[in-house]
Task: structure prediction
Amino acid sequence: MDAKRPFSGHVRSRKTSRAVRIGEVLSRVFITIGGIGTILAVALVGCFLIYVVWPLFQGATVKEAGQFAVKMPAAGPLLTGVDDNQQLGWSILSNGTLQVFRLDTGGILEQRDLFPGLALTACSAPSRDPDIAFGFKDGTVRLGKIRFASRFLDPKEVPESLRELPVDQVAEFDQGLVTRTPEGQWRAQKINVELDEPIKPTEPGAIQLIDMSVTSDGLAVSLLTVDGKLRTNSVIEHKNLINGVIRKELSGGELVLPKRAGKGPPDYLLISGVGDNVYLVWQDGHLVRVSTQDLENPRVVEEMELLSDGTKVTALQFQIGKTTLLVGNSSGRVRAWFRIKPDGAGTGDGAVLAAGHELAGPQAPVISLATSSRTRMMAAGYGDGRVRLYYVTSEKLLAETWTERGQPVQGLVLTPKDDGLLARTSAGIWHWQLDPGYPEITFKALFLPVWYEGYEKPTHVWQSSSGSDAFESKFGLWPLVFGTLKATFYSLLLGVPLALLAAVYTSEYLHARTRAIVKPTIELMASLPSVVLGFLAALVMAPFVEKYLPAILISILTIPSAFLLGAYVWQLLPEKLGLRLAGKRFLFICVALPLGVAAAAAIGPYFERFLFRGDLMGWLAGDTNTPGGSTTGWMLLMLPLAILGTAVLQAQVVNPWLRRKTAGWQRASSASADLAKFLAASGLVIGSAWGMGALLNSLGFDPRGSFMGTYVQRNALIVGFMMGFAIIPIIYTIAEDALSSVPEHLRSASLGCGATQWQTARRIIIPTAMSGLFSATMIGLGRAVGETMIVLMAAGNTPVLELNIFNGFRSLSANIAVELPEAVRNSSHYRTLFLAALVLFSMTFLVNTVAEAIRQRFRKRAFQL
Result:
């Protein structure tokens, strides 16, 4: 048996070494797979975001679908329409004839005279509605509707020749078209024209120009007669209770236009979308704007020149909503004008027309314009046969194509779905299939100020939806980026100092038994779900802070002062008593917090009463003007600068002098001198902050509008409190571990050389653990940047660009959480939300990369120690 023992031990040793080697190989493989898998997972997230976002920046595509000739007068049609499926088109010719034609061959399906015996002189139709208005030489006005009517045919109605019609093929049927659907049904489509009874004029006069708008109150019609009278009307309906016949009439007022020397009547008349303004434009660029808010008494409120370079107006068209006026001139430029209301406008209604956008074109006159019925996209046809497609708000050239070179583009039509474009020249009609892509998205629109319709100046705006069909989506990401940075800044401002100071105190001053209780307790705070914290912030903390705001602002001074004052008073204790109570110092520190809170609660009401006349909220909103209010506001903002300046003064001047002076003093005398120094420094901080505030106030600067302003219940202050509370546990834990892992011999050597605990912590421990402290801060930063629920519930969720700590904001993550479930898949809104996620991903990646480089530098310095 004894002879076998060495052999069996050798076998066990070989088996053990083999198991160890297998374990090492397996661990190396799994660790490698895990590391590479993590890197690939992060990279794939970035690649997926780029994949979804990339189509946003692709251009439009235009593909020619056909070219055909349609017989019509040389003057061309007055109005043209196209159906959603790009199969059927109609035109109203200058002689009052309705012409219905196919878009694939140009074949005429129907041609009829709508107004036999009447001389048509003007007509108009809003771009989105079937309503249409006609004016005649005898002054008669006639209203109606032109619609595309679709219906599914009963099999018995289908002629024998059409029963074998291939799927998706088109054939002529009943002055329209019929299509065989994939389900085997026959869908017929034709043009329906509904004309109301003529509205006779109150006095004779041929109608030269007419326009109409569909408003919330009904139809608004404006017309200009050859004798220079502008008539502004609303359409009144009278229903005969006996036979149910509806009779319409025009009700309103008139204005005699002043004659321009050497100029004839206006060449264009357009009425705004809500019917409150009428625009009269001459070819030389002169514009007269007439306010029709009072229909009975229209009045001229503005006259201006649209052109200043001697060119002529060659095309005029409203965009969707009939607010932005597109003006094309003989030099090839298109300008977009809309009303704004700046201070000191000097017009009759306080509004002026402003040229918000200019689209540079080729050196050929703009002959025709066409606008989209869905977006701010427009097409311009030029005198050289060129057609360009623009998105007006972003001033983006989407595509360019040609008809017949050298032939002016006499007319343009964008199809209702923005998926087709028709252009007419004297040689015929060109038809293109169109894919505009995402025209509203450009880097400029996303990250730079954009001048939106009705805004006084270019600005950053995020507004993705509205209740109006004419609404323009605004996808400015900068307010969301700003909100993310604002939330991060205020949360770190509160959380980082508290967490790091708590970590230093726990590591260097707290007794081991107490630390074993305190540290796990703080770490348990991290287990609170962010949705619970957001709920508490919105429903508990926000109303509380609003009610006791003066006391909370004063607590910024009283709570730190209570801790510092307690530390200086502790030094006055007799040495033996201080040593006896050293183990219970943490309990005395805990007493300082309620004392600071009590002091703030006591001082707060007097602070508001004497400095803000008892209405701090009113002062913040600008309703109350108090001389001391602005000074106090500036004082609160200048406190950090005053504290920093006083600390530098103490470190460089006061402390060296005081050390020399108190070198031979007793402990009690030195402690008294320290207390006197603290009280003097506190007075200097408050006095210097107040002095800087008074100086800024005397120079006319107001703190409201910068870091202060109107108080909103859910604001950055609330988010700072609660998000700071959320990030404290993780920063504290990592920082305390980093401080505790500093080798004990460094701490012992410093204390052995006579350094105090604070000197040891400040000069030895903290520099050595700096890489860990920095990592803790960066992890807290990452938590703050990506936080969603607290920001969503406590920040008001308003995408505004304000530094005001008392106002709300919207962050990237909160915006994605709110809007992504409602975004239409693959729409501009949907892909822009993924772009927001990519921006957030890039921000955190960049910050973490820089942070890692800095951390490595701190590690090298710590290694040298």
